[in-house]
């Protein structure tokens, strides 16, 4: 975080180079080389050796195939090979690997991950299952790159599922039909495309009824850290709603949405900690909110979003700055709501930089509070 303009940086003397620390072993075999001509000759030699070994043994080895063609480590290959007992020749898995590489443009490491997560993808029919699924997604607006991201984030099992298209069609309207937003939501919650749609419908209906959520609100939930609430069971949602009731915000009001978010995103003990901060520092009591920062009970009921903000990382550092400015009579405002809501850049520009002459250590007060949070 930079509160003041950067000072010129002097060039540092060159440091001696040290060998890079060894990285922890990956679950997947790295490619043996990067030069395309060397790789081609090496791969051909390895394939010939493998084929010769297989011919001499008189049988197709699934484990060897997973190691040599799918780039899995032997221990991983041994574990997942038990699910591929039906494979007797490389013809079908070769077709699948070619499809993943060409039709979905997956890189070799991503193909290895896809196979390790869902080995039975190698038993799928390209013509009857995988290619038609790609055509259906493309008809819905997916690009090749986006289909690859879907496999990378949700797994090959989700891609080959018969319910994939119905699930995609279920979520797209909440995201205004934007495929890119759905792909973004899958990064937050890959379970969107494996969730039971009956449960999701019941959960969303409950949230929309009690929290007055619009379809756009549901889309926002899907893209946010609250995404997993959309795929929670109705019983879990009931528990969240009951916890949100403790904030004193009436149900079926627009403000109750923020109470739901606060109840979902924080554990009960952390919420109690925040409530103590509002009560002790800002004057919030059981009956009303004191005028210490200009928030009356009605405003609190209409601004439960305060409960969403991180206490130590956002609210406490800003409150400490306000307390310093008030003690110096440099700021007479009393509304902490807006101070909590503005962006980091706006807070620094409005409440720190203009007062650095009168309070030279103001930036240190703020930075010390934030650093304390980051060090925890």
From TrEMBL:
Keyword Transcription in annotation: yes
Source taxon at top rank: Eukaryota
GO molecular function, one term: nucleic acid binding
Any one Gene Ontology BP term: DNA-templated transcription termination
Keywords in alphabetical order: Transcription, Transcription regulation, Transcription termination, Transit peptide
Family recorded in the similarity comment: Belongs to the mTERF family.
Protein name: mTERF family protein
């Amino acid at each position: 975080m930079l509160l003041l303009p950067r000072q010129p940086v002097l060039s540092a003397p060159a440091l001696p180079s040290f060998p890079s620390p060894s990285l922890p072993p990956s679950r997947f075999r790295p490619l043996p080389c990067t030069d395309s001509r060397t790789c081609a000759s090496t791969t051909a030699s390895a394939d010939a050796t493998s084929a010769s070994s297989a011919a001499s043994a008189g049988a197709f080895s699934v484990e060897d195939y997973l190691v040599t063609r799918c780039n899995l480590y032997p221990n991983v290959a041994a574990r997942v090979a038990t699910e591929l007992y039906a494979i007797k020749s490389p013809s079908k898995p070769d077709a699948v690997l070619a499809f993943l590489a060409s039709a979905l443009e997956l890189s070799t490491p991503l193909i290895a991950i896809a196979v390790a997560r869902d080995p039975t993808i190698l038993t799928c029919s390209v013509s009857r299952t995988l290619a038609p699924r790609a055509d259906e997604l493309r008809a819905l607006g997916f690009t090749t790159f986006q289909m690859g991201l879907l496999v990378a984030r949700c797994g090959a099992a989700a891609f080959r599922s018969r319910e994939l298209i119905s699930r995609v069609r279920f979520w797209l309207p909440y995201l205004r039909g934007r495929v890119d937003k759905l792909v973004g939501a899958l990064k937050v919650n890959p379970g969107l495309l494996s969730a039971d749609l009956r449960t999701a419908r019941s959960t969303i209906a409950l949230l929309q009824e009690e929290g007055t959520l619009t379809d756009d609100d549901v889309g926002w939930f899907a893209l946010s850290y609250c995404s997993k609430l959309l795929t929670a069971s109705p019983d879990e949602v009931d528990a969240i709603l009951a916890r949100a009731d403790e904030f004193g915000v009436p149900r079926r009001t627009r403000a109750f949405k923020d109470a739901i978010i606060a109840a979902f995103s924080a554990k009960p003990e952390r919420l109690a900690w925040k409530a103590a901060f509002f009560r002790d520092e800002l004057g919030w009591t059981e009956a009303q909110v004191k005028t210490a920062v200009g928030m009356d009970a009605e405003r609190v009921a209409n601004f439960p979003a305060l409960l969403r903000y991180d206490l130590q990382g956002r609210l406490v550092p800003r409150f400490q700055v306000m307390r310093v400015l008030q003690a110096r009579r440099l700021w007479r405002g009393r509304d902490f709501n807006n101070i909590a809501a503005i962006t980091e850049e706006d807070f620094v520009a409005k409440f720190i930089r203009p007062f650095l002459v009168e309070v030279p250590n103001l930036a240190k007060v703020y930075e010390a509070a934030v650093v304390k949070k980051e060090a925890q």
